[in-house]
Amino acid sequence: GGSRRLLLISNSTLHGGGYLGHCQQHIQSFLGQKVKRVLFIPYALHDRDAYARTAREKFESLGYGLDSIHESCDPVEAIRKSEAIFIGGGNTFRLLKALYDNSLIHEIRRRVLEDGIPYMGSSAGTNVATISINTTNDMPIVYPPSLQALGLVPFNINPHYLDPDIKRTHMGETREERIRQYHEEPNTPPVLGLREGTMLLVEGDKAMLQGVTGARLFLR
After folding, report:
1. Which cellular component terms (GO) are annotated to the entry (predicted)?
2. How far apart are CA 96 and CA 192, in angstroms?
3. For the chain, which domains are there?
């Protein structure tokens, strides 16, 4: 992981702001001036055309061109030629299944971990950057061949993490309880509960929280 550069965002939209508005300065700082075009992966949402339009509009406003992988006739070749990769949010199961279906798992890992191209994810795109999607909040609306994900970091993340609310009357499990249930299983990795408004910047073997809301680290 010596050359790895990741920006893992908890959420793409923060209350009161627009798409990626709360983290746009972090994105510009992360991508810098060397990157000219970003390859967007919209597989987490059903309407990929509309999703790509939203992402393209935002990244062009920040000074970057954007190509969407679903518009390419050869997704693997698109990954091989990309300067930077951004995987957007939506349903994590749908996203991971599409990554497997298009034979992109190995190629993304190679470009990020060996070639050192920047990788950005938000929500589901952050989930798939980790060891597995076992700690996603999403419903399994489709069935990927495995829950193992890209493994760009040696832990899992729970995006949109919510702290327990002592005033609540809802009796379902809290996020904290669900993550602790996960850790009751053997050989489960640490889980970073990433609150909305927070992102994790990974450079080599160093990870730094950015944003204002912080995170919780759960260890088995």
Report:
1. cytoplasm
2. 20
3. 5-218 (3.40.50.880)
3 state DSSP class of 205: coil
Residue 152 CA to residue 147 CA, distance in Å, equals 14
- Interval 38-83: pLDDT, tens: 999 999 999 999 999 999 999 999 999 999 999 999 999 999 999 9
Catalytic residues: 123, 138, 160
DSSP summary character for residue 173? P
**CA separation, residue 183 to residues 32, 78, 191, 220 (Å):** 38, 37, 9, 5
Q: What angle do CA 138, 139, 141 make, to 5 degrees?
A: 125
Nearest to 86 by CA among 26, 142, 135: 26
